[in-house]
Specification:
The protein is mainly α. The chain is built from 14 helices and five strands. It has a domain of about 140 residues: Alpha Horseshoe (Serine Threonine Protein Phosphatase 5, Tetratricopeptide repeat). The strands form two sheets. It has a three-stranded antiparallel beta sheet. Strands 1-2 form a two-stranded antiparallel sheet. One of its GO terms (cellular component) is nucleus. This is SAC3/GANP/THP3 conserved domain-containing protein.
C-alpha cells in the first residue's frame, strides 16, 4: 500500500516540476498533501550545519520531493524554505555607523540615486497592487518562515487563501507523522499572520503543550502568567485551563469529557496526555471494584472508548485481565499484577 503511494507521489512530483501554471500547481500540491499520510515516512534528516565547510543543499520546489535511495526509506516530502542561519552578513563588512561606512553610503547614494528612485517606485507599485487586491498575494510557498512584520508586505510575500488552506493541511499531515511542536508552531504563526487568526486559540495550545511536556510544576504557572488578562475568559483558554487542572489532579473522568469536546486542534496536543490518563482510569477502576467483575461497556466509558472490543484490547495491552466470554474486566486478577504499558524487550 505504501509502495503504491510512494510511486504515485513520485509521478505527481514529476508532473509538478513540469507544470508552470499556478492553478495546476496548486491542484497537484493539494493531491500530494492528501497522499502524504499514506506514504512511507522518511527518516529524520540531520540538522543543517552552517559554516562547517559543507555545501548547503540546493533549493527544492514548493512541494517537490524525491524517493530516497534506501529503497524502503519512503518518499521524502521536501518544502522550499530558507533557514534563518542561511541569512548571514557578508564577510569583511565594515562596522555600521563608522565614518568610512557613512562616506561610502553617501558616495553610493550619489552614484545610484536614479536606480534607487526607480526601485522605490517599484516598491510603491507592489504595495499598491497588494492593497488593491484586498491583501491577496501571489506567494505559492506551502511553508514560510515566520517573521515579524516591520513594513507593509509585498504581494509576492503574501499567500492567497487557497495556498494557506493547503499549508494548514500540510501542517496537520506532518504533525500526524512527527509531532514537532516548534516546527508546527512556527508554521501556524506564519499562517495566522496573514489570516489574523484567533490569538486565544494559540494561547490555549501553548498551555496544553506546556502541561503535556514540562516536568517542572512551576512551568505551567509561568506560561499562564504570559497569557493576556483579557484572553483568560475566552472559551479556548478556559478549556485549556480545565484540561490542565484535570490532568494535574488526576481527574480522568473530567479529562475524557474535555477531550471529547476539545475545540479545533486541541485533541492533537491532548493526545500526549491521553495515554497517561487512560492508564490512571484503568488502575482506579480495578482498585475501586475489586474483587467484583466490571462490564466492558463501563470500562469503555471510563477509558473514553467507543466499543467493548477497544476497551478489552487496551486493558489487555496495559496488563489487565479480561474475561471475553463474560464480557467483563477481572479486577481480582488484574490487581495481582502491575498495570502499565508493555516494557520493551531487554
Amino acid at each position: 500500500m505504501r509502495a503504491r503511494a510512494d510511486a504515485l507521489m513520485a509521478k505527481l512530483t514529476a508532473k509538478l516540476e513540469a507544470t508552470s501554471d499556478a492553478k495546476k500547481r496548486l491542484a497537484i500540491q493539494t493531491k500530494m498533501l492528501r497522499l502524504l499520510p499514506k506514504c512511507t515516512p522518511a527518516p529524520p534528516q540531520p540538522a543543517l550545519q552552517v559554516g562547517a565547510g559543507k555545501a548547503a543543499p540546493g533549493p527544492a520546489s514548493n512541494a517537490a520531493g524525491s524517493a530516497s535511495g534506501g529503497g524502503t526509506a519512503g518518499f521524502q516530502f521536501r518544502i522550499q524554505r530558507t533557514p534563518k542561519a542561511a541569512i548571514v552578513p557578508a564577510a569583511g563588512t565594515a562596522a555600521l555607523g563608522g565614518p568610512e561606512e557613512a562616506a561610502r553610503r553617501r558616495l553610493r547614494q550619489q552614484r545610484f540615486g536614479d536606480a534607487g528612485a526607480a526601485g522605490a517606485e517599484g516598491d510603491d507599485q507592489a504595495d499598491a497592487a497588494l492593497v488593491d487586491s484586498g491583501g491577496l498575494g501571489t506567494c505559492e510557498a506551502l511553508e514560510k518562515e515566520y517573521l515579524r512584520l516591520t513594513s507593509l508586505p509585498r504581494a509576492c510575500e503574501v499567500r492567497p487563501p487557497a495556498v494557506l488552506a493547503a499549508a494548514l493541511r500540510l501542517v496537520k499531515a506532518k504533525w500526524l507523522q512527527n509531532p514537532d511542536y516548534a516546527a508546527a508552531s512556527e508554521q501556524l504563526k506564519s499562517i495566522r499572520q496573514v489570516v489574523h487568526g484567533n490569538p486565544a486559540e494559540f494561547e490555549a495550545y501553548g498551555l496544553l503543550y506546556t502541561q503535556a511536556t514540562s516536568a517542572a510544576r512551576n512551568t505551567l504557572a509561568m506560561e499562564l502568567g504570559r497569557v493576556p488578562e483579557h484572553l483568560l475568559s475566552h472559551p479556548f483558554v478556559r478549556h485549556a485551563m480545565d484540561v490542565c487542572a484535570a490532568a494535574r489532579s488526576g481527574n480522568y473522568s473530567r479529562f475524557i469529557a474535555l477531550y471529547d469536546g476539545a475545540p479545533r486542534m486541541s485533541p492533537y496536543i491532548m493526545d500526549r496526555l491521553l495515554g497517561k490518563m487512560r492508564l490512571l482510569a484503568l488502575q482506579s477502576t480495578v482498585m475501586a471494584y475489586k474483587p467484583l467483575p466490571v462490564p466492558l461497556e463501563h470500562v469503555a466509558v471510563q477509558l473514553g472508548l467507543e466499543t467493548e472490543e477497544e476497551a478489552a484490547a487496551l486493558a489487555t495491552q496495559l496488563g489487565a485481565v479480561v474475561d471475553l466470554g463474560a464480557g467483563c474486566l477481572d479486577t481480582r486478577a488484574s490487581a495481582a499484577q502491575p498495570l502499565g504499558p508493555p516494557r520493551p524487550p531487554a
